[in-house]
Amino acid sequence: MLEAYFSCVMEAGTDEAGRGCLAGPVTAAAVILPAGYRNPWLDDSKKIAAPRREALAESIRREALAWAVAHVDPQTIDRVNILSASILAMHRALDQLDPVPLAIAVDGNRFRPYGEIPHNCLIRGDGRFLNIAAASILAKTSRDAFMKELHRAHPEYGWEQNKGYPTRAHRDALRKHGPSPFHRKSFRLLGEQLKIGL
After folding, report:
1. Secondary structure of the chain: what % helix, strand, coil (to 5)?
2. H or E segment at 94?
3. Distances in whole angstroms, Cα of residue 54 to Cα of each of 2, 61, 103, 143, 151
4. 43 annotated ligand-binding residue
């Protein structure tokens, strides 16, 4: 079972989804959980089947003290790079929290200071700490819903299934149709995926 990671009760966990995609936004969530919060099913969103993720997302939105989600579009990703865009998405999610957190727990090992609020970077935090895992669930489910909406306008890329990730079918569609306005032009769409470590 995941544990709470609280340097104080009012600590926000934050995580992102979609960093490795060829299309669509990078999405981040920030979550403040109540003291003593427990959920035996909560884990890193990548380890949870879609139906359970959706149920967990509904539970988190209902039970969290505060939560927020933010998207950063492909044009911004191309302009500032995926690392900066991921951190920007986290900051935008944190901007929306009410109450304001007193500390921030960040999944991964890279972040930029958010005002004067202290932060902790935690490698694989989404599989270790409840507040980061909750943020990973909200980021993943929100981004998946966003990609399903984009799929309606561009069904040729199969985003309802691949969510913008570099699957073979997605690359085959790029070869046939070329990139859409929602593809990240700074990524190697038909070569090896551009790798930027966080």
Report:
1. 40, 20, 40
2. helix 82-95
3. 19, 11, 27, 12, 19
4. no
Residue in 183, 144, 181 with CA at minimum distance from that of residue 162: 144
Q: Could you report the per-residue pLDDT of 7-38, keeping only the tens digit for each? A: 567 999 999 999 999 999 999 999 999 988 98
The CATH architecture one would assign to domain 11-144 is 2-Layer Sandwich (3.30)
172 is in an annotated binding site: no
Query: Using CA atoms, how far apart are residues 129 and 122, in angstroms rounded to an integer?
Result: 9
Q: State the pTM of this model.
A: 0.91
134/166 Cα distance (integer angstroms): 25
Q: Which DSSP category does 68 fall into? A: E
| 54 marked as part of a ligand binding site | no
In sequence order, what are the residues at sequence separation of 6 or more whose Cβ sits closer than 8 angstroms to the Cβ of residue 118?
A: 7, 103, 104
